[in-house]
Amino acid sequence: MKKKYVIISVILVLTVGISLYFVFKKKPALYKEAKVEKGSITLKILATGTVQPENRLQIKSPISGRAEQIFVKEGQKVYKGQVLAMISSTERAVMLDSARSQGKDEIKKWEEIYRPTPIVAPLAGMIILRSIEPGQTFTTSDAVFVMADRMTVEASVDETDLAQIYVDQKAEVNLDAYVDKKIEAKVSQVAFEAKTVNNVTTYTIQVLPIEKLDFLRSGMTANVTFVGTEKKDILIVPNEYIKYESGKAKVQVKTNDKPDNREVKLGITNGKITEIVSGLVEADTILLPLNSDNNSGSKKGATFSFGGGRRR
User: Fold this and answer.
1) What separation in angstroms does the CA of 297 have from each of 129, 242, 253, 301, 311?
2) DSSP 20
3) The pairing of beta strand 117-120 with beta strand 77-78
């Protein structure tokens, strides 16, 4: 019986030992690798905005009265000095209404004597609002027309990105109303005064389309992409390969089948790839440590195990 218990104890000890060996066995480190190569990086700043008239002008009548004739409609282009409407003063309107009861000859007489007053366009542009109709009365405080010389996009840019924005900078505008149209534009003005909303400081940037577009409407929602610094033929690496230790940027480099934790100096980044100023050379193989339980087949690039041979 004693011999039987000894054998059982030995078997249990071996079983536990073997189990612990496989549980605590150090698995080989897995790495995803990539080649350091040359490429280009273009910094882009994204912002939202709205289409607004560059110069929005309200046209008011110099006298109170009644609209007799309206010659323009919304969306119509006009030239400077063009007659937009003919209006009667309050006194003329009363006289004409009184003359109508006396016949056509009386009306014609007073129309010859008391001429209507024209409202003319003070500048060339487009009528974006017409707020009167023939026969409608108004006062001198009412805006009978609203004009705009050309449409721009006003975008709000965070103060942290302001250093990358400058006049005549290239930009691209996309409208929510016309998602298939890409509008080439440039920065025409950078605001000097900030706006703070919910503790976020922004500056208004005016973006002017290169071409005059008839489909632009005041109030349209726009997404603006500002094209910033561009560098070509530089060393680049994916951002996921860069790690920071004590404030220093480092990249693991494959050297003699061993990872070498190398310090690098970084340049510009677009959020996905980063310029390497020094510390690496073209064709270096860089490594990204992976968890052993990751599915290497879902990773881009080859995966290697140091000490355990190559895995696919």
Assistant:
1) 61, 22, 22, 9, 10
2) H
3) unpaired
What are 148-184's pLDDT values in tens digits? 888 899 999 999 889 889 999 999 999 999 988 899 9
Count CB atoms within 10 A of the CB of residue 104.
9
**List of domains in the chain:** 27-41+232-311 (2.40.420.20), 44-53+151-230 (2.40.30.170), 58-148 (2.40.50.100)
Residues 181-223 have pLDDT tens digits of: 899 999 999 999 999 988 889 999 999 999 888 788 888 999 9
* CA angle at 265 for the pair 29 and 282, rounded to the nearest 5°: 70
Find where tokens 């980044």 sit. 269
Q: Which amino acid is at 41?
A: I
Q: CB neighbours of 289 closer than 8 A, spacing ≥ 6?
A: 29, 30, 31, 252
**How many other C-beta atoms are found inside a 10 Å radius of the C-beta of residue 148?**
20
How far apart (Å, rounded) are the C-alpha atoms in residues 110 and 247?
Answer: 88
The model's pTM is 0.58
What would the two tokens of residue 227 be?
Answer: 């094209």
